[in-house]
Specification:
The complex is a heterodimer of chains A (196) and B (467). With 196 residues, chain A is of the alpha/beta class. Chain A is 31% helix and 17% strand. Chain A is built from eight helices and seven strands. A seven-stranded mixed beta sheet of chain A has the order 4-3-2-1-5-6-7. The longest helix of chain A is centred in the C-terminal third of the chain and has 10 residues, at 183-192. Chain A starts with 5 loop residues before the first strand and ends with a helix. In chain B, 31% of the residues lie in helices and 16% in strands. In chain B, the strands form five sheets. Chain B has a five-stranded parallel beta sheet with strand order 5-4-3-6-7. Chain B starts with a helix and ends in an 11-residue tail after the last helix. Chain B is of the alpha/beta class. The longest helix of chain B is centred in the first third of the chain and has 17 residues, at 77-93. The chains are: A alpha/beta (196), B alpha/beta (467). At the A-B interface, helix 4, helix 6, helix 7 and helix 8 of A face helix 2, helix 3, helix 5, helix 10 and helix 11 of B.
Chain lengths: 196, 467
């Protein structure tokens, strides 16, 4: 897994609430059997007219040239709906390293963390401050300090992440390595565990 | 200090707690399907690891399968490759697979309970958010991502932080014409599509106790649509009567031993919840959604919110976006509005009781000629039962075709899609933009409301059509 310590970048503001994973990656792209190449279909139906890559929708933020960066900022309840990890793969493959929102759906949050994409939860008020900034503004996210700063104004918030997941993100460790390392304990647990 | 049923089951499955981190949670049953498993299999292989407990895994093909001519090779090459990959992976790793053509094949959340694989007190996961369905049996069941599927392959465990617990009490009797789908749509409309995020939800109260197992599954199924990690209902005689004699349910003396354990699975009177919500069952009308998330629902006789009633600017912008997508006006009523499609199916409402409900309404009548239908049983077993009970004849006489088992138009991964701009009354669980096909306009409702639309081609109040 990709590690992440600190990032300063411009951001892409997606001022839409309840962005579900069907929008992030529509079901017709879930037929793949590998994790690669999902970025080109990220937000596919919001990005293109009639599924046509030559007809980008001018009103969609990924198509607006003034916006760029490795950080996606979205309104509340980002990543709700289907558990498809393809949503996290698409966001990562497109190039985002951090997603900022005032509220994440649970499964998406786990999926993002398991793929080296950092979900940063901020207050509603701070989210509005970010949205109010222009395309030139940058954000700095420092995982070690658990802070997010709007560089232009110095406005800052701290964000939550449990110590275990933080260590994983900082070092690029994944849960499977950890689980494989405690196999003996799991076998021990099974000896006393009745199925019901 | 009492314990909730959720705490009782959770605590029994904790292998270890990582300080200031998640718990390592042991998983009793792992259900897999073709869409969210291939990358987990290749991940395991890349690590040079093996599957830790393959006999605790059951596989089926459901999301991506055609619902006509299942005996023929799958025409869509990508779908075929994905289904073939599942077959190959299951063979290679020694996993029981109920693939196309197998009598046990069907939607993963329909076959688990139907076969008696789903049992009280278990932890159950699947790479599918509607895994919450299995909570109807008093199990902790939740959807996971593909990395977590790989974790369970590797270790039979997932890493999860313990969620908060909410109880929703529904007391009293339902109106005639109101069914469990209306209960859950009512709850989601009340607390919003994110109202239960961070929680596991226990459903309780006399209205829940009075429901059949299949009706309880419909409620637990949609827990995720309000953001909940899962839903759970304490097991009771209704649960045991449903389970007894099913192929994978305990038999003989073992049944009695297990039963004694299951009877301990209830929330103690002194247990505390992080949040409790009380609902009067009689208040619930037949429900329908009008927007692009399942929280945007109302009574079938209600009117959409007005623009003035929404003050938050982002919320207003989202409401207008949803109305534009749905082709609806703020403040309007839906009653009497024509629909072009009816979809009856999905892990929410594709079980035999759903087909009995629909048949009871359409019996001896004709389908509206303008309505196109997608009627899809949840499993081969449900399809068999439909025939055994003669319900297929009622559908045929009404001019309605019954298809073969699969997820179908719930997510439109196969060819069962709703065309752009068309309205579809759907018994499924999600009305997201494009969910049933690019530009499709989904109106979520109960099987009874769907049956009314089959006959009239319109959004109707089923209560006015019942004797």
């Amino acid at each position: 897994m990709q590690s992440l310590q600190k990032i300063t970048s411009r951001f892409i503001p997606l001022r839409i609430e309840n962005v579900d994973t069907d929008q992030i990656i529509p079901a017709r792209f879930l037929k793949a059997t590998t994790k690669e190449g999902f970025g080109k279909n990220l937000f596919r139906d919001w990005r293109y007219e009639n599924d046509d890559e030559t007809k980008p929708k001018a009103d969609f933020v990924l198509n607006q040239k003034q916006y760029s960066g490795d950080i996606l900022v979205a309104a509340k309840n980002f990543g709700c709906g289907s558990s498809r990890e393809h949503a996290a793969w698409s966001i990562q493959d497109y190039g985002f390293k951090v997603v900022v929102s005032s509220f994440f759906a649970d499964i998406f949050k786990n999926n993002a963390l398991n793929n080296g994409v950092l979900p940063v939860t901020v207050t509603d008020a701070f989210l509005q401050q970010i949205f109010a900034k222009g395309a030139e503004a940058t954000l700095t996210i420092d995982l070690e300090k658990q802070t997010i700063i709007i560089d232009k104004t110095g406005a800052a918030e701290t964000f939550d992440i449990n110590a275990y997941k933080k260590t994983c993100m900082l070092n690029g460790y994944d849960d499977i390595d950890y689980l494989l390392s405690i196999k003996k304990e799991i076998e021990q647990f099974e000896l006393n565990h009745k199925m019901n | 200090m009492g314990k909730t049923i959720f705490d009782k089951i959770w605590d029994k499955h904790v292998v270890k707690i990582i300080e200031d981190g998640p718990s390592v949670l042991y998983i009793d049953k792992h259900l897999i399907h073709e869409v969210t498993s291939p990358q987990a299999f290749s991940g395991i292989e890349k690590r040079g690891a093996t599957l830790f407990r393959p006999t605790q895994i059951v596989a089926t093909a459901d999301h991506n399968v055609p619902t006509m001519n299942q005996h023929l090779p799958i025409a869509d090459q990508l779908s075929k490759f994905q289904v073939d990959t599942l077959i190959e992976n299951c063979q290679k790793h020694g996993i029981e697979l109920y693939g196309l053509g197998h009598p046990n094949q069907g939607i993963v959340h329909v076959i688990g309970p139907e076969l008696g694989i789903t049992q009280p007190g278990m932890t159950i996961v699947c790479g599918d958010s509607h895994t919450s369905t299995h909570g109807a049996f008093g199990s902790i069941a939740f959807g996971i991502g593909t990395s977590e599927v790989e974790m369970v392959f590797a270790s039979q465990c997932v890493m999860q932080s313990k969620p908060k617990v909410m109880r929703i009490n529904i007391e009293g009797s339902l109106q005639n014409g109101v069914v469990s789908k209306d209960i859950i749509l009512y709850i989601i409309a009340k607390i919003s599509a994110s109202g239960a995020t961070g929680y596991f939800v226990e459903y309780a109260g006399s209205a829940i106790r009075a429901l059949s197992m299949e009706a309880r599954m419909t409620i637990c199924n949609m827990s995720i649509e309000m953001g909940a990690r899962g839903g759970i209902i304490a097991p009771d005689e209704t649960t045991y009567n449903y389970m007894k004699g099913r192929p994978f349910a305990p038999q003989g003396a073992d049944w009695e031993i297990q039963l004694a354990g299951w009877k301990q699975l209830y929330t103690d009177a002194a247990a505390k919840f992080d949040l409790e919500i009380n609902i009067n069952a009689a208040e619930i009308d037949p429900m329908i959604t009008y927007g692009t998330n399942p929280g945007m629902g109302l009574s079938v006789t209600g009117t959409l919110p007005t623009l003035n009633s929404i003050t938050d600017p982002t919320e207003k912008q989202n409401f207008e976006k949803a109305l534009k997508y749905m082709g609806l006006q703020a403040g309007q009523t839906l009653l009497g509005m024509p629909v072009q499609y009816v979809f009856i199916g999905s892990c929410t409402n594709s079980r035999i009781e759903d087909f009995r409900l629909v048949a009871s309404i359409i019996k001896g009548k004709q389908k509206d000629p303008n309505v196109k239908t997608l009627i899809v049983p949840g499993s081969q077993e449900v399809a068999k039962q439909i025939k055994a009970e003669g319900l297929d004849k009622i559908f045929t006489a009404a001019g309605i075709e019954i298809r073969q088992a699969g997820c179908s138009a719930c997510l439109g991964m196969n060819e069962d899609k709703i065309p752009a701009g068309a309205y579809c009354i759907s018994t499924s669980n999600r009305n997201f933009e494009g969910r049933q096909g690019a530009g499709a306009r989904t109106l979520l409702a109960s099987p009874l409301t769907a049956a009314a639309a089959l006959l009239t081609g319109k959004i109707m109040d089923i209560r006015t059509m019942l004797n």
